[in-house]
Design goal:
- The complex is a heterodimer.
- Chain A is an alpha/beta fold.
- Chain A has 3 domains: 1-158 and 307-326, no CATH class; 161-278; 341-582, P-loop containing nucleotide triphosphate hydrolases (Rossmann fold).
- Chain A has helices at residues 2-16, 18-53, 60-77, 79-108, 112-115, 120-127, 130-159, 163-192, 196-209, 211-220, 223-275, 281-323, 381-388, 411-417, 432-437, 447-456, 482-495, 512-525, 539-542, 561-567, 570-579, and strands at 341-348, 358-365, 370-374, 396-401, 404-405, 418-421, 500-504, 530-534, 546-551, 554-559.
- By secondary structure, chain B is of the alpha/beta class.
- Chain B has 2 domains: 6-328, ABC transporter type 1, transmembrane domain (ABC transporter transmembrane region fold, Up-down Bundle); 346-590, Rossmann fold, CATH 3.40.50.
- The longest helix of chain B is centred in the middle third of the chain and has 54 residues, at 229-282.
- Classes of the chains: A alpha/beta, B alpha/beta.
Amino acid sequence: MFLKQAYKAVAIVLKFAPAEASLKIAQRVLMATLTPLAIYFTQRLIDASVLYIGGNAGGQAVVLWCGLLLFTMFFRTTDSFFDGITGISVSRKLNAKFTPVIVEKFRKLDYANFEDKDTQDTIKRMSNEPQRFLQGTYTSALACTSLFVVIVISSLIFAQVSVWFMLGFILLIFPMVWFDFKSQSISHKLWYEQSSEERRLDYLGGLLSGKEPALELKIFGASGYISDKWRKKSETVLNERLKTAIYAQRFAFASTLLFKAWTVFLVIYLVNAVIAQNISIGLFTALITSIATVIHATENLSRLLQYAKRATLLIDHYDIFLKMGEMPENSGGENLASPRIAFENVTFRYPKTDRTILNGISFEIGAGERVSLVGENGAGKSTVIKLLCRLYRPDSGRILINGIDINDLSNKQLCGVFSVVFQDFCNYSLTLRENVAFGDLSKMDCNEELESALKQGLWVNDDIGLDTPLGKLEEGGVDLSGGQWQRVAIARACLAPSAFVILDEPAASLDPVAESEMYKSFSEVLRSRGCIMISHRLASAKMADKIIVIGEGVVKEQGSHTQLMENGGLYAEMFSAQSAWYV
Amino acid sequence: MKNNKAPKIIAGIFSGLFRYAPFSSALSALHSILGQAMPAIETVVTVGLFDGALKALNGEDTGGSLVFYAAVYLVAYFINDVLAFVGDTATNTGVFEKGSHLFRIKLYEKMAKMPLIAFEDAGLLNNKERAEKAVNDNVMAEVFKQCLIFAGSAVSIVGVVAVLASFSLWLVPVSLLSVAPHFISRLLRGREFYRVKYAQAKKTRLLTYLWNLFNGRRTAKEMRVMGFDGYITGKWARLRDEVNEETWKVNLKDVKSMLFCDAICIVGYGLSVIIVLLLAINGDVSVGVLGASLNAFAKVQANMREFLISFGKLPENLSYARDYFGFLDLPEEQNGHMQYGGLKSGIKARNVSFKYPNAAGYAVRNVSLDIQRGEKIAVLGENGSGKTTLSKLLLGLYPQESGEVLYDGADVRGFSKESFFKNVSVISQNFVSYNLTLRENVAISDTRRMGSDDEITAALRGVGLAYITDEVGGLDGVLGREFGGSELSGGEWQKLAIARGLFRASELIILDEPTSALDPLIETEILTKFLEIAKDKTAVIISHRVGLSKLVDKIVVMKDGEVAETGTHADLMRRDGEYARLYLSQEQWYSQ
C-alpha cells in the first residue's frame, strides 16, 4: 500500500532532520484544528450577535467570539509563514545531511550498475533531486494527515446536530475521496505517463523537427510521408486520450453526485430543524458554511493522495538504490614497479546477456610494452580495457599484474598502473586546469607539468589559459570542438604518472593528417611508458611493439606488424584493405 | 513579429482555439464566465436563507421563505455543478487535448517548410525549441484558461460587491478594504522573488552539473579509473553548503515578507468583519447579511488571489506563446518556378562564398568548380575545411552570399525544389537510423515505391544486406531498440543508409563519407559497393581517403574553405601542394 511507503518517507525525513521535521508535524496538526474551529467560532458569534441585537444578552459574548474568530483567522494566515519556515529548515537539513548519503553511495556504486538496463530507472530517479522528492512525499503525507484531522474535527460540528449525522458524514467521505482519487489517477496517467504509441508519436515528431532528418527528408521529398504518418497516429492517440479523459470525468461526476446527495440531505434536514425550532441560527449558518469547507477538503485530500502515490515510487527506488552492489574498498599497498600484465583464460559475458564476449582469452603485456589491440567491430577490444580497469570482473580466469590478481590490488595501486582515454571520454565544463589535472590531482597547481601534458596531447590553443572555463556551462566558457576535447582528454591521461596509458580510439574525430601527427607525438611521449591502444586506423598498429588480434573472444594472432603481415592472417587482410584507400 | 504585443497573441490564441475546437472553447468560456456569477447568487441566496431561518426561529413566519431559498440554493448549486462538469470536460478534452494537437500540427507543417539553413542559426533554433515547448506544455491552452480565470474572477468580484451594495452601500468600501492589501502585497513580493531566482541561477547550475557527474555512466567510469571522485565530492560539498546557506537566508527573508503581506491582508479582513458586525448591531444590515458577508469577503479575497496569480503567470506563458506565433511567421523556404528536366552538360560553381549565420569567418570562400555530367569527383581536405558545406551549396540547400551555382547554365535556386530533388540523392555523414520498418528505412528515399518489394530487396542485396530481411522478420520488421525492434550494428545501419541513398533513382548523388569507427573490412566493402552502383551517375564523394583519387575522374582539395587544388592524382602530386601533403602524411603509415 502506498500510504505505508509515504509514511516511510516521513520516517526517513525524521531520521535526517529530527528537530525540524517534528516541528513541522506539530505545526501541521495545530493548523488542521483551526479550520473547523473557525466554523465553530462563526457559529457562536452569530448566535451571540442575535441575542445581543434582540437585547437578550450583553455584548461581552459578541466581543469574545469575534475576538476568537479573528485570532483564529490571523493564526491561519500565519500558516504560510510557519509552513514556509519549517519547510525550508527541513530542506536545509536534508540538503546538508541526506544528499551526501546519496552522493557517497553513487561514488561507491559498482560500475556494472551504470550499464545495467534494469537499474537505469532507479539511477535516474536518484539522480534527479531526490531530496526534493523525499520532502515532497513527506509534506504530502503530512498534508493528508492534517486534512484527515480537518475532516474528523469538522464532523464534530455535525455531532452537535446528532451523532448519526456525524457518522453518516464520515461514511460518505470515503467513497467521495475514492471516486475523486480514481478520476485523478486516470487523468494523471493520461498527462504524465506516455503510452508506447505516444512515444512513437514523439519519435516521428522528432524526425519532423530534427536537423539531421531535415536534410534527408527534404531531398527525398519524404516530409509528407512522415507527417502523414504522424498525423494519423496522432489522431488515434488523441481519440484514445479523449476517451480516457471522458472516462475519468465519470468518476469525478460520481463524486460530485455523492456530494450533491449529502448537500440535499443536509439542507432538507436543516430546514426541517429550523421549522421545528430545534437549531440555533448560528449552527444553521455554520453547517451551510461547512459545505464549502468539506468539498474543499475532500478535493485536496484526493489530490494529495494522488501526489503521495506517485512520490512513493521514489521510496521504492531509494530502497533498491541503497541495496545496489558496491565496489570493494581496499586501500594501501606499494606502487607496483615496472608492471607486467597477464590475461589467463579469461571468459566474460556482460551481466544479463547471452553473448559470450571473451572466451578464455590469454595474452601477456610486458613492462613498458606498446601494444595495439586489433579486431573487427564487436570483437571485445573495449571489453578487455574495462576488465583491466576493474570496471567488470571476469566470469572465470584471472587478470594478473606482476603475478598478483588485480582483485587484490588497491584502487591506488591500479591507478598507478593505468590511465585511460575512453572512446566516450568526458568533457568537463570546468577550467582547463581541472580538466587536465583530473589525471593526477596532486599536480593541480603545477602549471609547468600541466602545460607539458597539454603539449603531449598536441594541444595547440595556447590562447586558452589554464584557468579558462571550458564548455557552455558558464557564460564566459570556451566551447571546444570534438578534436580539441579529445586532445584535452589525452593530456589528462598523459599527466597521470601511470605505467601504462590506454587509448581507446584516440583518433576517431581527427582527420588523417592530425592523426599521423598524433602517432608521431605518441611515439615520443610514450617512449618511457607502456601503451595499450585500440584503433581502426591500422597505421597506429605499425608503431606498436606487439599487435594482438582479437576475434571470436580469443587471441587470433599476435606479433609485430612485419610478422603479422608475413603470416597473412586477419591482420594482413585488414591492413591491405585499408591501405588501398590511403596509398 | 518578435515584438508582438500581448493582446495580439491572446487574440491569436483565442481565434485559433475557437477555430480548432469551437464547441469546447465556447463551453469552456461560458462556464468560466457564467460560473463566476455563482458567488453573487450564492450571497443573495445565503442572505435569504439565513434571514428566512432567523424569521422561522423567531416564529415570525412558518418557514415559507426559508423553504423557498433552500430550494433556490439547491437548484443553483445543481446548475452550477452541471455547468462545471460540462465546462471542465470541454476544457480538458477540447481546449487542452484537441487544441494543443492542432497547434502542434501547425508547428510541424511550418517546420517542414523551413529552409535547411535555419537549423544552423542558434537564434532560430532557440526560437524553435521554445515554440516546441509551448506546444508540449500546452501553453496556448494555459493562456486561454488563465485569461478566462482572469475574466471570471473579475466577474465574480464585481458580482459579489454589487450584491453586497444592494444590501448596504457601506459594504462596498468594506469589501474593498478586504481586497486592497492583496494588491499591495503583490507589488511588494513580485519583484523580490525575481531577484532571488536570478542571483542563484549560476551557482545552482554548477551544482547540478557537479551532481550529475556522479550519476552519469561515462563520468562514473572515468572517475573510478582515474580516481578523482574525491575532488568532485569536495567541490560539490563546498558549493552545496554555500548555496544551501544562501537559499536559507533568501527563503527566510521571503517567508518574512510573506508574513508581513499576510498580516496586512488579515487586518483588512478583520476590519471588514468588525464593521459588518457593527452594521448588523446597529440594524443597518440583517443578521443574514452578516452571515453571508463573512463568507462573501472570504470568497472575494480568494478570487482576488486567483486573479493576481493568473495575472502573474501570464507573462511567462505569453512569452512562450509569442515565440510560437513568431516561429509560424518566419520566412519559409523560397521555391523556384523553373522546372528541372535533368542534367545535360554539367554543374558549374562560380565564385561561391558562404558564411554560417552569426559566424565570423567564411565557411566556403570564392569557390569555383566544374563537374561534367557522369563525372565522379572526390572532395578531399582536413576536418573543417568546408567539404560538407560545399556539397550543400551545390544542391542549393544553403543560400550563398555571393557567386552562383549553375546547372546547365541555370541557377540552382531558381528550380522548383520538387523537380530538382527528384534527380538527386544523398548519403549524409549524419545519416538517420529510422526506428521504423526495414521497408521504410529503404524506401523513405522514394515513397512512391514503398510497395515494390522486389526493388527494395534488390537495394538491400546491392549493399550486401540481403540476409537482414530474414533476421528482422521481413521487410515489415521494425528496426531500432527504441520500440522493441531489431537493433542493427553500426556498420549495418551505415550500409542501410547507403541502400536508401541508392534506392532513389537519381542522376546526381552525393556521398558524404561517414567517419565513425568502422573496421577496415566493412569500410572497404561499403566504399567498393558505392562506387560500383554509382557507375552511371554524376557523383560527388566527400572523403579523407587519398586512395579514392585513383578511382575518380577529378580530385578537389579544400583548405580553409577554399579550393586549394583540382586535378588528377598525377597532376596534383607533380604540383607538390596540399594534396601531396595529405597523401604523404597518410602514405607514410600505410606503405609497406
